[in-house]
Amino acid sequence: MKIADKSTSAEKLVRDALEKAKKYAEYNIFTFLNEEGALKKAREIDARIKKGEKVGKLAGVPYALKDNFLSPEGETTASAHILEGFVSPITATAVAKLEAEGAIMIGRTNLDAFAHGSSTENSYFGPTLNSRDKKRVAGGSSGGSAVAVALDIVEFATGTDTGGSIRQPASFNGVYGLKPTYGCISRYGVVAMASSTDCIGFFTKTPDDMDLLMSIASGQDPKDMTTLPDYYNATDASLDNSRHAPSRPSTIGRPRPKGRSLRGSGAQSAPVVADGLESSNARVRVGIIKDFDNESVDSDIREALKNKIELLKSKGHEIVELEMPALKYGLAAYYIIVPAEVASNLSRYDGVRYGFRSEKSDDLDSLYYNTRFEGFMPENKRRIMIGNFVLSSGFYDAYFLKAAKARTLIINEYEKAFSKCDFILTPVSPNPAFKLGEKVNDPVAMYLEDVMSVSLNLAGVPGLTIPAGETKDGLAVGLQLVGPRRSDKALIEFSKELA
Amino acid sequence: MEIKREDILHLADLSEFALDEKETESLGGDLKEIIGYISQLDELDTSDIQPTYQVFEMENIWRDDEILPQDATREQLLALTKNEKDNQIKVPKVL
């Protein structure tokens, strides 16, 4: 991600990106193209460079913004009818940080309405098409962002990941996609889905770009009380990690045999915090989940995993077989906890203060009922109703409380796993991109897409999708690298070993 | 678990949205399937396990109780509705 270094100009970069966005219009990637605003910003940056003024680390870099991040540029709709016409007066902290470094948003990208979905087919604006095969889904919910990066329209794109919404579309389109540790990046100004699992992250073409974006976006935000102090950029002495993470079995300080460099040649010398990989010479223990190695996983994906395991072995890393039986219940727990939080978070959309309002109302109650009836997509309604079901008296103990206990078991299982290994390598989803329409009328089949991704969100641990080749039919295959909490930087660095 | 038509209408009511006949029908089938799936947690032994409701590592962040500058003004917020009059938002009759 090179700053405009006078061999090109911000204006040219932005014009090229906008042109490509139009060329690929049939993919339905963007809900809004920021032509005027982006070109104006580009010219400002060019003028500053010409004057010799200091510009940011992302000066002139075009990017795509998932349409659930608030900013005054274009309508923020979350691809939902009920937010039609909503132009935000405020700017999300993550957006403000990127733009302060000179990044230029060229468009807002399509998603499953309110990020409810795994294919981007639940969008009010219709599905986004897969970058490799237009008859297949982009994945979701951040489908537009993944395809925008995969088709090289932009250098990077933002995403949100509540249960796999960054990692799965990244996998379906052959790009890097990171869901950071819970609390790493401020969620202020991002449309809430499920507050205990929502994370903000990015799509990039390289690990180094991911590292740069993380170093810019991470950190505590007074406007989001669930942000952690900036561990991503912390030097080892400036932050006492153990104080904030008492329950995680520590691998800090574990001695490692010398021999290999963990860090790629292009990386800065910033320390890798949180899991003891600050040693530059490390043999890394990579866990493989035995429970995921079965016939329900596509053979091309299993093959890709096998290849990467061999690669790691050839580089001298150790492979550790893990049994994580509780993960089997992750999906059921997720589809109780998340709908419960969705029902609560989406109760604010009532047609009164902003967005769409139904015309068919004769009193206040019918205004609420009709606005929400017309404004939500069927999947939004399913999740809200399931949420209200699992929270209602008579069912609370059997569903919501039970799921909250299952969550504890899942967290314990990750802690146990990370006492035996440094990272875990798994598939992202059981299959590569599926055909448009194949699962849209079968909600449980669609939910099963998330079976390997949701447990990370329940545990709050980071996961990075890495491109891992393609299927016999040329579809992209990704794998996810999972680490303990706060290991984001080490995770990104280690992904270079798998390239 | 059986999901009756009145259960669907009750859940729609809790969710504060209307449903037409077609959606009542299709959501009924969907919900039955989804609840069937999530009910598999029954088989998981969770005795003596404490529930987890959030995974944020830190607790209470305090600040002084003072009014801080806000990102949006009253005028900007009111401009978001098309039904504003005298600094108030108009809605249909309540009673």
Terminal CA distance of chain A reads 18 Å
In terms of structural class, how would the helical and strand content of chain A be classed?
alpha/beta
Most strands sheet of chain B = 2 strands, antiparallel
**Oligomeric organization of the protein chains:** heterodimer
- What is the strand tally of chain B? 2
Structural class by sheet pairing and helices of chain B: mainly alpha
- Provide the CATH topology of the domain at 10-217 in chain A: Amidase signature (AS) enzymes
Identify the overall geometry of chain A. globular
Strand content of chain B: under 5%
Number of helices of chain B: 3
User: Which residue ranges of chain A are poorly predicted, with pLDDT under 50 across at least 5 consecutive positions?
Assistant: 237-281
Largest interface in this structure: A-B, 70 and 54 residues
Q: State the CATH architecture of the domain at 10-217 in chain A.
A: Alpha-Beta Complex
Helix content of chain A: 25-40%
Q: What is the N-to-C order of secondary-structure elements of chain A (H for helix, E for strand)?
A: HEHEHEHEHEEHHEHEHHHHEHHEEH
- CATH class term of the domain at 10-217 in chain A: Alpha Beta
- Order of helical and strand elements of chain B: HHHEE
Arrangement of strands in the largest sheet of chain B: 1-2
How would you describe this structure in keywords?
heterodimer; A: 499 residues; alpha/beta; Amidase signature (AS) enzymes; 11-stranded mixed beta sheet; 11 strands; 34% helix; B: 95 residues; mainly alpha; two-stranded antiparallel sheet
Overview of this structure, please?
The complex is a heterodimer of chains A (499) and B (95). Chain A is α/β, with parallel strands linked by helices. Chain A has a domain of 208 residues: Amidase signature (AS) enzymes (Alpha-Beta Complex). Chain B contains 3 helices and 2 strands. Chain B has a domain of 39 residues. With 95 residues, chain B is mainly alpha-helical. In chain B, strands 1-2 form a two-stranded antiparallel sheet. At the A-B interface, helix 9, helix 10, helix 11, helix 12 and helix 13 of A face helix 1 and helix 2 of B.
